[in-house]
């Protein structure tokens, strides 16, 4: 199964990410978002960030997850290449996410940026769960 695919869009970057589970699809969405910005294949994971989030639904949880990763990139100057979502659970009226992201310090001599991602948007946002797996659809502002 492919991890993600990019979808044509006139002004922003849009993609779908796939997984057998929501956890896998969310991790693949993070991979796709960082590959919008940079080729992540050459990143040596040296730094680990643990992330816990909660949101009222899966769509908001997806936006919060990717937004948190973008925030950590911008503030801590870390480019991420590996993502593991340990769990996405519904507790009461909230969905909880527990995950980690691994990467290395940003080095502008090594990391050549293709596109800057400014924000994760709600435009054409979707989380689809079927018997074949989970597909998420996301648009990022570039």
UniProtKB/TrEMBL annotation:
Keyword RNA-binding: no
Domain Archease residues, every copy: 4-142
InterPro entries (UniProt xref): Archease (IPR002804), Archease_arc (IPR022952), Archease_dom (IPR023572), Archease_dom_sf (IPR036820)
Keywords: Calcium, Metal-binding, tRNA processing
A molecular-function term among this protein's GO annotations: calcium ion binding
Pfam families referenced in this protein's UniProt entry, alphabetically: Archease
Residues where Ca(2+) binds: 12, 141-142
Name of this protein: Protein archease
